[in-house]
From TrEMBL:
SUPFAM superfamilies: Chorismate lyase-like, Winged helix' DNA-binding domain
GO molecular function terms listed in the Swiss-Prot or TrEMBL record: DNA binding; DNA-binding transcription factor activity
Example of a GO biological process term: negative regulation of DNA-templated transcription
Gene giving rise to this polypeptide: phnF
Keywords, ordered alphabetically: DNA-binding, Transcription, Transcription regulation
Naturally occurring in which organism (per UniProt): Cereibacter changlensis JA139
Pfam families: GntR, UTRA
Listed name of the protein: Phosphonate metabolism transcriptional regulator PhnF
Domain HTH gntR-type: 3-71
Keyword NADP in record: no
InterPro entries given in the database record: Bact_HTH_transcr_reg (IPR050679), Chorismate_lyase_/UTRA_dom_sf (IPR028978), CP_lyase_PhnF (IPR012702), Tscrpt_reg_HTH_GntR (IPR000524), UTRA (IPR011663), WH-like_DNA-bd_sf (IPR036388), WH_DNA-bd_sf (IPR036390)
Regions crossing the membrane: none
Length: 248
Protein backbone atom coordinates (compact mmCIF):
# COMPACT_ATOMS: atom_id res chain seq x y z
CA UNK A 1 0.00 0.00 0.00
CA UNK A 2 1.45 3.34 -1.08
CA UNK A 3 2.22 5.75 1.74
CA UNK A 4 0.95 9.29 1.71
CA UNK A 5 3.57 12.03 1.75
CA UNK A 6 3.04 12.88 5.43
CA UNK A 7 3.51 9.23 6.43
CA UNK A 8 6.74 9.02 4.43
CA UNK A 9 8.04 12.16 6.13
CA UNK A 10 6.97 10.92 9.57
CA UNK A 11 8.68 7.56 9.11
CA UNK A 12 11.90 9.11 7.78
CA UNK A 13 12.14 11.60 10.62
CA UNK A 14 11.31 8.88 13.15
CA UNK A 15 14.07 6.66 11.74
CA UNK A 16 16.57 9.51 11.96
CA UNK A 17 15.60 10.15 15.59
CA UNK A 18 15.90 6.45 16.46
CA UNK A 19 19.17 6.11 14.56
CA UNK A 20 20.74 9.13 16.23
CA UNK A 21 21.06 11.30 13.12
CA UNK A 22 18.67 13.65 14.92
CA UNK A 23 19.90 13.54 18.53
CA UNK A 24 17.90 14.66 21.58
CA UNK A 25 17.59 18.42 21.70
CA UNK A 26 18.35 18.90 17.99
CA UNK A 27 16.30 21.54 16.21
CA UNK A 28 14.61 20.53 12.98
CA UNK A 29 14.86 22.67 9.84
CA UNK A 30 11.98 25.05 9.23
CA UNK A 31 8.70 23.82 7.76
CA UNK A 32 9.62 25.36 4.40
CA UNK A 33 13.05 23.73 4.41
CA UNK A 34 11.60 20.33 5.28
CA UNK A 35 9.01 20.67 2.52
CA UNK A 36 11.79 21.39 0.01
CA UNK A 37 13.94 18.54 1.33
CA UNK A 38 11.14 15.98 1.09
CA UNK A 39 9.68 17.48 -2.09
CA UNK A 40 6.30 17.67 -0.42
CA UNK A 41 3.78 20.29 0.58
CA UNK A 42 3.96 22.17 3.86
CA UNK A 43 0.67 20.59 4.93
CA UNK A 44 2.29 17.13 4.72
CA UNK A 45 5.25 18.32 6.77
CA UNK A 46 2.95 19.89 9.36
CA UNK A 47 0.93 16.68 9.67
CA UNK A 48 4.05 14.51 10.01
CA UNK A 49 5.50 16.77 12.71
CA UNK A 50 2.18 16.79 14.59
CA UNK A 51 2.06 12.97 14.52
CA UNK A 52 5.59 12.71 15.93
CA UNK A 53 4.75 15.29 18.59
CA UNK A 54 1.81 13.14 19.70
CA UNK A 55 4.20 10.16 19.91
CA UNK A 56 6.47 12.24 22.14
CA UNK A 57 9.39 12.26 19.71
CA UNK A 58 9.21 15.96 18.83
CA UNK A 59 8.42 19.09 20.79
CA UNK A 60 6.98 22.14 19.04
CA UNK A 61 7.73 25.44 20.77
CA UNK A 62 5.80 28.40 19.46
CA UNK A 63 8.12 31.12 18.24
CA UNK A 64 11.24 28.95 18.58
CA UNK A 65 10.84 25.90 16.36
CA UNK A 66 10.61 22.11 16.53
CA UNK A 67 13.02 20.04 18.62
CA UNK A 68 13.78 16.37 19.15
CA UNK A 69 12.39 15.50 22.55
CA UNK A 70 15.24 14.67 24.93
CA UNK A 71 13.23 12.55 27.33
CA UNK A 72 14.77 9.59 29.18
CA UNK A 73 12.47 6.62 29.79
CA UNK A 74 12.27 6.14 33.55
CA UNK A 75 11.54 2.73 35.05
CA UNK A 76 9.87 3.93 38.23
CA UNK A 77 9.62 1.41 41.08
CA UNK A 78 6.73 1.79 43.48
CA UNK A 79 7.41 -0.19 46.61
CA UNK A 80 8.83 -0.07 50.10
CA UNK A 81 10.41 3.34 50.82
CA UNK A 82 11.24 4.18 47.22
CA UNK A 83 11.54 7.89 46.48
CA UNK A 84 11.61 10.08 43.39
CA UNK A 85 15.25 11.07 43.83
CA UNK A 86 16.36 7.53 44.61
CA UNK A 87 14.53 6.10 41.60
CA UNK A 88 16.26 8.46 39.19
CA UNK A 89 19.74 8.35 40.72
CA UNK A 90 19.78 4.55 40.57
CA UNK A 91 19.25 4.83 36.79
CA UNK A 92 22.00 7.39 36.29
CA UNK A 93 19.48 10.18 35.72
CA UNK A 94 19.82 13.54 37.47
CA UNK A 95 16.68 14.46 39.47
CA UNK A 96 15.56 18.03 39.94
CA UNK A 97 12.35 19.91 40.58
CA UNK A 98 10.48 23.17 40.39
CA UNK A 99 8.08 24.63 42.90
CA UNK A 100 5.21 25.89 40.73
CA UNK A 101 2.48 27.10 43.09
CA UNK A 102 0.98 26.90 46.58
CA UNK A 103 -2.21 28.17 48.14
CA UNK A 104 -4.84 27.48 50.80
CA UNK A 105 -8.32 26.78 49.54
CA UNK A 106 -11.55 25.00 50.57
CA UNK A 107 -11.11 21.25 50.17
CA UNK A 108 -12.80 19.86 47.05
CA UNK A 109 -15.22 17.04 47.79
CA UNK A 110 -12.88 14.21 46.73
CA UNK A 111 -9.98 15.66 48.74
CA UNK A 112 -12.14 16.17 51.83
CA UNK A 113 -13.34 12.57 51.57
CA UNK A 114 -9.80 11.21 51.21
CA UNK A 115 -8.55 13.21 54.21
CA UNK A 116 -11.74 12.70 56.27
CA UNK A 117 -12.28 16.43 56.55
CA UNK A 118 -15.43 18.46 56.42
CA UNK A 119 -16.13 19.56 52.86
CA UNK A 120 -14.61 23.01 52.21
CA UNK A 121 -12.24 22.70 55.21
CA UNK A 122 -9.03 24.68 54.53
CA UNK A 123 -6.28 22.65 52.88
CA UNK A 124 -2.84 23.38 51.50
CA UNK A 125 -2.54 22.72 47.77
CA UNK A 126 1.02 22.49 46.48
CA UNK A 127 2.08 22.00 42.86
CA UNK A 128 5.60 20.85 42.04
CA UNK A 129 7.23 19.62 38.84
CA UNK A 130 9.76 16.80 38.69
CA UNK A 131 12.53 16.69 36.09
CA UNK A 132 14.88 14.00 34.83
CA UNK A 133 18.08 15.28 33.23
CA UNK A 134 16.32 18.61 32.89
CA UNK A 135 13.25 17.20 31.11
CA UNK A 136 9.83 17.47 32.82
CA UNK A 137 8.45 14.05 33.65
CA UNK A 138 5.76 14.68 36.26
CA UNK A 139 3.61 17.14 38.12
CA UNK A 140 2.79 16.58 41.78
CA UNK A 141 -0.41 18.02 43.21
CA UNK A 142 -0.68 17.50 46.97
CA UNK A 143 -3.29 18.42 49.56
CA UNK A 144 -2.87 18.57 53.37
CA UNK A 145 -5.01 19.83 56.22
CA UNK A 146 -4.03 23.46 56.82
CA UNK A 147 -4.97 23.26 60.51
CA UNK A 148 -2.85 20.19 61.22
CA UNK A 149 0.17 21.35 59.17
CA UNK A 150 0.00 25.17 59.18
CA UNK A 151 3.46 25.79 57.68
CA UNK A 152 3.58 22.85 55.25
CA UNK A 153 3.15 24.80 52.01
CA UNK A 154 5.82 27.35 52.93
CA UNK A 155 8.27 24.62 53.89
CA UNK A 156 7.60 22.70 50.69
CA UNK A 157 8.32 25.88 48.74
CA UNK A 158 11.60 26.14 50.67
CA UNK A 159 12.57 22.62 49.57
CA UNK A 160 11.72 20.52 52.63
CA UNK A 161 10.47 17.00 51.94
CA UNK A 162 7.07 15.75 53.05
CA UNK A 163 8.75 13.08 55.18
CA UNK A 164 10.82 15.71 56.99
CA UNK A 165 7.76 17.88 57.65
CA UNK A 166 5.74 14.94 58.93
CA UNK A 167 8.58 14.01 61.28
CA UNK A 168 8.58 17.51 62.76
CA UNK A 169 4.88 17.08 63.53
CA UNK A 170 5.52 13.84 65.40
CA UNK A 171 4.78 11.44 62.52
CA UNK A 172 7.78 9.12 62.51
CA UNK A 173 6.43 6.86 59.77
CA UNK A 174 3.48 6.75 57.44
CA UNK A 175 1.94 4.32 54.97
CA UNK A 176 0.30 4.52 51.58
CA UNK A 177 -3.24 3.33 52.15
CA UNK A 178 -4.48 3.38 48.57
CA UNK A 179 -3.07 3.95 45.10
CA UNK A 180 -5.19 4.48 42.00
CA UNK A 181 -3.63 4.53 38.51
CA UNK A 182 -5.30 5.62 35.29
CA UNK A 183 -4.55 7.37 31.99
CA UNK A 184 -6.19 10.45 30.49
CA UNK A 185 -5.47 13.41 28.28
CA UNK A 186 -3.73 16.35 30.00
CA UNK A 187 -5.37 19.71 30.40
CA UNK A 188 -3.73 22.74 28.79
CA UNK A 189 -1.71 23.69 31.88
CA UNK A 190 -0.44 20.14 32.41
CA UNK A 191 0.61 19.76 28.76
CA UNK A 192 2.45 23.09 28.86
CA UNK A 193 4.28 22.32 32.12
CA UNK A 194 5.23 18.83 30.92
CA UNK A 195 6.27 20.25 27.53
CA UNK A 196 4.30 17.63 25.66
CA UNK A 197 1.66 17.52 22.96
CA UNK A 198 -1.88 17.91 24.37
CA UNK A 199 -2.96 14.70 22.63
CA UNK A 200 -0.19 12.68 24.31
CA UNK A 201 -1.72 10.87 27.30
CA UNK A 202 -0.59 11.25 30.89
CA UNK A 203 -0.59 8.62 33.64
CA UNK A 204 -2.15 9.73 36.90
CA UNK A 205 -1.30 8.18 40.29
CA UNK A 206 -3.66 9.13 43.11
CA UNK A 207 -2.69 8.13 46.64
CA UNK A 208 -3.68 8.66 50.25
CA UNK A 209 -1.12 8.51 53.05
CA UNK A 210 -2.06 7.56 56.62
CA UNK A 211 -0.22 7.78 59.94
CA UNK A 212 0.47 4.84 62.29
CA UNK A 213 -3.06 5.11 63.68
CA UNK A 214 -4.54 4.87 60.20
CA UNK A 215 -5.66 8.50 60.03
CA UNK A 216 -5.27 10.15 56.60
CA UNK A 217 -2.58 12.84 56.59
CA UNK A 218 -2.05 13.58 52.91
CA UNK A 219 -3.64 13.14 49.50
CA UNK A 220 -1.79 13.62 46.22
CA UNK A 221 -2.06 13.20 42.48
CA UNK A 222 1.07 12.69 40.40
CA UNK A 223 0.59 13.39 36.70
CA UNK A 224 3.31 11.68 34.63
CA UNK A 225 4.22 12.18 30.97
CA UNK A 226 2.98 8.89 29.55
CA UNK A 227 5.83 8.32 27.10
CA UNK A 228 8.60 9.04 29.62
CA UNK A 229 7.90 6.54 32.37
CA UNK A 230 6.98 2.94 33.03
CA UNK A 231 5.97 1.68 36.47
CA UNK A 232 6.98 -1.44 38.36
CA UNK A 233 4.88 -2.26 41.40
CA UNK A 234 6.81 -4.28 43.98
CA UNK A 235 4.59 -6.74 45.86
CA UNK A 236 5.04 -6.80 49.62
CA UNK A 237 3.39 -8.65 52.45
CA UNK A 238 1.64 -6.55 55.06
CA UNK A 239 1.58 -2.77 55.21
CA UNK A 240 3.53 -0.75 52.69
CA UNK A 241 5.33 2.46 53.68
CA UNK A 242 4.31 5.45 51.69
CA UNK A 243 5.52 6.50 48.27
CA UNK A 244 6.68 10.10 48.50
CA UNK A 245 4.85 12.52 46.26
CA UNK A 246 7.07 13.80 43.42
CA UNK A 247 9.71 15.30 45.65
CA UNK A 248 13.21 16.44 44.84
Amino acid sequence: MRQENWQRIRDQLSAEITGGQLPPGAQLPTETQLAQSFRAGRHSVRRAVAALAVEGKLRVEQGRGTFVQAAPLINYHIGRRTRFRQNLLEQGVAPAGDHIARDILPAPAHVAAALRLAEAAPVHRVLRRGLADGVPINLGFSWHCAERFPDLAARRAAGHSVTEIYRDYGIADYCRKTTTVFARRPDAQEAALLMQHPDQPVIVLQKTDVDAAGHPIGYSEAVWAGDRVQFTFDSLEGGEPAQEAPDV
